[in-house]
Write a structure and sequence with these properties.
By secondary structure, the chain is an all-beta fold. The chain has 1 helix and 21 strands. Strand 12 (151-155) and strand 13 (158-164) form a beta hairpin. Mean pLDDT is 77; it is low at 1-32 and 233-279. InterPro entries: DUF4397 (IPR025510).
C-alpha cells in the first residue's frame, strides 16, 4: 500500500455491533492555518466490506471496517476524488464507490460510505452542525443511511423524526439527558433498530447513523459526538444568523458560516435541518 499523506485521516478501530455504540466526544488536532482547512470525518456504513479509502490517488484509510467513524482531521480545502476499494485492491483496481467531494475552508463535514435505499453502495457528504447551544441543551441528528424504507425515530416511545428517507437527515435541539430511542418503520410500531439509550450531554452535537441492510437483517446504529458547543455570553445561539464561530472539542475555532450548506457530493447538497424542534 502507498504511505499516508500528511493530511491522512487516522482510521478508528473496531466494528459496530448490532446495537448502539455511543462514541466519545471527538477531537481534532489544532492547526496554525485553520482558515485554509476543513475538518473531515469518514463513516463506513457498508456491511460486510472492509475497504481502503483513497483521495486524489493517495491512501487515506487502510483496512477500514464497517461501523467505524473516524475522528475529524484537518484537510486542505478543495476538491477530492474519493475512491473506495475492497481492502487490498486499490489504487489500480476497480473502485466499489467513487465520487467527487468538494470541501470548502471552514467546513465541518462527515463523508459517509453507505448503502442506498435499494442496497447500492454510495457516498454522501453531510455538514455537521456545530453551532453553539443554549444552556442545558444538546443537539440530536439522525441520518438514514441504511438499505431500508422510510423510518420514524422515537424517543421515549414518542416520534421525534417521521418519514425519514435514505440519504436524508433530521436535526432537533433537545434537553440534555439520557433518551431511550428506537427506529420504527414509518407510520408503524414495527421496531427496526433498538431501543438504545442515548446519553445527550449538554453542549454536544450527537449524530446517529441508522445503517446496514433490512433485507440482510443487520441494521445497526452508530453515534458520532462533537463537544464544546456550550453557549458563552458573546456567542450567537444555534437559531441565530449562522455567522457565529463554532468550536470543536480541542478548542480550535471553525467558521460555521463558511460551512453551512457548503459541502457537496458531485454538486448535490445532502443536508436538512429542522430548527427549533424540541423533545
Amino acid at each position: 500500500m502507498t504511505s499516508r499523506t500528511p493530511h491522512a485521516i487516522a482510521a478508528a478501530a473496531g466494528a459496530c455491533a448490532l446495537a448502539l455504540g455511543v462514541a466519545a466526544p471527538v477531537a481534532a488536532a489544532p492547526s496554525a492555518d485553520a482558515e485554509d482547512k476543513a475538518m473531515v470525518s469518514v463513516f463506513h456504513g457498508v456491511p460486510g466490506l472492509t475497504v481502503d479509502v483513497y483521495a486524489n490517488g493517495n491512501e487515506l484509510l487502510g483496512d477500514f471496517k464497517p461501523g467505524t467513524v473516524t475522528d475529524p482531521q484537518a484537510l486542505d480545502a478543495g476538491t477530492y476524488d474519493i475512491k473506495i476499494f475492497p481492502a487490498g485492491q486499490g489504487p489500480d483496481g476497480t473502485p466499489a464507490i467513487q465520487k467527487e467531494i468538494k470541501v470548502p475552508a471552514g467546513a465541518n463535514a462527515t463523508i459517509a460510505a453507505h448503502l442506498s435505499a435499494d442496497g447500492k453502495p454510495q457516498l454522501t457528504a453531510f455538514v455537521n452542525d456545530v453551532a453553539k447551544l443554549d444552556a442545558g441543551k444538546s443537539r440530536l441528528t439522525v441520518r438514514h443511511v441504511a438499505a431500508a424504507p422510510a423510518v420514524d425515530v422515537r424517543a421515549g416511545g414518542q416520534p421525534v423524526f417521521t418519514g425519514l428517507q435514505n440519504p436524508n437527515q433530521d436535526t432537533a435541539v433537545v434537553d440534555a439527558g439520557t433518551v431511550k430511542a428506537d427506529v420504527v418503520l414509518a407510520g408503524t410500531n414495527t421496531v427496526a433498530i433498538g431501543p438504545a439509550d442515548l446519553d445527550l450531554k449538554e453542549g454536544t452535537s450527537n449524530i446517529v447513523y441508522a445503517w446496514g441492510s433490512a433485507e440482510d437483517k443487520n441494521l445497526a446504529l452508530k453515534t458520532q459526538t462533537f463537544s464544546g458547543m456550550e453557549s458563552t455570553p458573546s456567542a450567537v445561539g444555534a437559531g441565530g444568523s449562522g455567522a457565529a464561530a463554532a468550536t470543536n472539542s480541542s478548542g480550535q475555532w471553525l467558521a460555521w458560516a463558511a460551512a453551512a450548506g457548503a459541502v457537496t457530493v458531485t454538486g448535490v447538497l445532502v443536508t436538512r435541518r429542522v430548527a427549533g424542534r424540541r423533545v
